[in-house]
Amino acid sequence: xxxxxxxxxRLENRHPAYIGDVGIGIHPYLAEAITSSDLVLAIGPRLGxxxxxxxxxxxxxxxxQPLVHVLPDPEEIGRVYQPTLGILSGMAEFxxxxxxxxxxxxxxxxxxxxxxxxxYEATIPxxxxxxxxxxxxxxxxxxxxxxxxEALVPEDTxxxxxxxxxAGWVHxxxxxxxxxxxxxxxxxxxxYGVPAAVAAKIAAPERTVVSFNGDGCFxxxxxxxxxxxxxxxxxxxxxVNNGMYGTIRxxxxxxxxxxxxxxxxxxxxxxxxxxxxxxxxxxxxxxKGFEAAFKRALTCTQTQGRPALIEVRTDPNEITAKTx
Length: 324
What we know:
Blueprint: E1 2-4, E2 20-22, H1 28-35, E3 40-43, E4 67-71, E5 85-88, H2 91-99, H3 110-122, H4 127-134, H5 142-152, E6 158-161, H6 167-173, E7 182-183, H7 193-203, E8 209-214, H8 215-221, H9 225-230, E9 236-241, H10 246-255, H11 270-277, E10 280-284, H12 290-303, E11 308-313
């Protein structure tokens, strides 16, 4: 089972049936599994641009393989893809009906699932591998940041993020826990990560909340740190600072090399800004300093009830988890 774009917590990522996320930068093994499948059961997604690889994973308007599309919105079923069977249903109701069906003993797709699961696990680097690779990185290595956070937080930790290339490291290298451990904008809206984290911590104060934000993303709603302090909410904010609107810059460099425009940012001292709001602030310049900084942030949020912010300075050339 693959989970749709920024809906990775719909199946606990350590479950043996989970095989990856179907969204931006989909792994080739997963894309091939979808295109070569003999049946697609789509439970919940709109089957828009993000979940179909720009309408390439499934052939519109009628896919070559049977398509069962389950969705509570009658205007979406059949809008782009004509399903073999469209089911108008809420997710809870469909899950209850499916649970009531007789299970299939020894399903014939079991071996294929195990094969795809192994391919997914091979994409998640160990902390030892990441630490060794990060030694040559200029600035903080984001793969190491994500793998370190996963190792230090409970499995029910809520992870939030906005929109931007920095979020790709989270989607690819963090293994999400049970349902409602991921809050992310499937619409692609920037600025979502900070207010989502504040709201999550207020709604579930007993749980750890970590918010990932790009520098440009954070500047859109960073003032909500004041709300967090005012109401005693204590998320941990990671601000990934590469000094630019990275996603837009990537498109500019790809389509118009050497002609970037209005994507360079003149940022504040994010750690000092956090302190001004009454949160704990810290700046990390090298990968080796992140783990200790994150542990201090955890201690602050757990013992003082204050939010904490860690600004991590990254190499602008490392634009995605796969490319420079």
